[in-house]
């Protein structure tokens, strides 16, 4: 008496619970032989089967399956007051997203002052957010130089990290000296933040003093 055969059903991608129902209806059996970590899939999804879908199989025969499981949660260590590079290395070695934000604090520059998640909490898909200390930068505002002479501007910015560049809208001689030229426009504009440790080029649009016209 010839035993009836049937094509092996497609179980790949099915939750184990659904695959069991499918096989039960066909008088087939499932045996889970392994679990494999997969961060993209829900747990207990079939990711491999033997026999493969479509191969002939007999009633009550076993289909051997590998199912997905979530990777074990990584617990966040404490990086408070540690150099930011230690956290960056930790995240890179584990392929964890890590966003760094810098804030002025009283703590040493480059050290972590806070992070999410907190220590001893699991790291989620959102990854890690860390706040890193920077030295508070002293700053001032770029003054309004319109209608001043170039020599006056040079005196004002003498102690600032500023380099002056001038531009004439009219042709001037090669021997022309801008000392008394009048500023009618400037870049950056008045009120722009000027930091003590960040050099700035001040672009001045000037016209020659009337005595040189």
Describe the structure.
It is a single chain. The protein is mainly beta and 213 residues long. Helices cover 13% and strands 34% of the residues. The chain has 3 helices and 13 strands, in the order E-H-E-E-E-E-H-E-E-E-E-H-E-E-E-E. The chain has helices at residues 16-25, 84-93, 150-156, and strands at 6-7, 29-37, 46-50, 56-57, 62-69, 98-104, 112-116, 128-134, 139-141, 162-168, 182-187, 193-195, 200-207. The protein has a 3-stranded mixed sheet with strand order 2-5-3, covered by helices on one side. Strands 6-8-7 form a 3-stranded mixed sheet, with helices on one face. Strands 10-13-11 form a 3-stranded mixed sheet, with no helix packed on it. The longest helix has 10 residues, at 16-25. The model has no long low-confidence stretch (mean pLDDT 89).
């Amino acid at each position: 008496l010839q035993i009836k055969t049937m094509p092996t059903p497609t179980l790949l991608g099915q939750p184990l619970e659904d695959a069991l129902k499918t096989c039960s209806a066909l008088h087939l059996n499932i045996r889970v032989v392994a679990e494999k970590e997969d961060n993209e899939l829900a747990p207990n999804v079939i990711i491999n089967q033997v026999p493969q879908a479509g191969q002939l199989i007999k009633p009550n025969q076993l289909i051997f399956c590998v199912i997905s499981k979530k990777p074990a949660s990584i617990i966040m260590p404490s990086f408070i007051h540690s150099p930011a590079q230690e956290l960056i290395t930790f995240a890179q070695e584990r392929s964890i997203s890590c966003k760094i934000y810098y804030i002025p604090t009283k703590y040493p520059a480059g050290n972590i002052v806070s992070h999410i998640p907190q220590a001893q909490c699991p790291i989620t898909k959102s990854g890690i957010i860390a706040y890193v200390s920077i030295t508070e930068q002293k700053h001032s505002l770029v003054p309004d130089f319109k209608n001043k002479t170039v020599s006056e501007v040079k005196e004002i910015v003498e102690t600032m990290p500023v380099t002056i560049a001038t531009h004439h809208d009219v042709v001037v001689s090669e021997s022309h000296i801008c000392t008394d030229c009048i500023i009618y426009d400037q870049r950056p504009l008045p009120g722009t933040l000027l930091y003590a440790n960040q050099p700035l080029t001040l672009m001045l649009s000037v016209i020659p003093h009337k005595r040189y016209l």
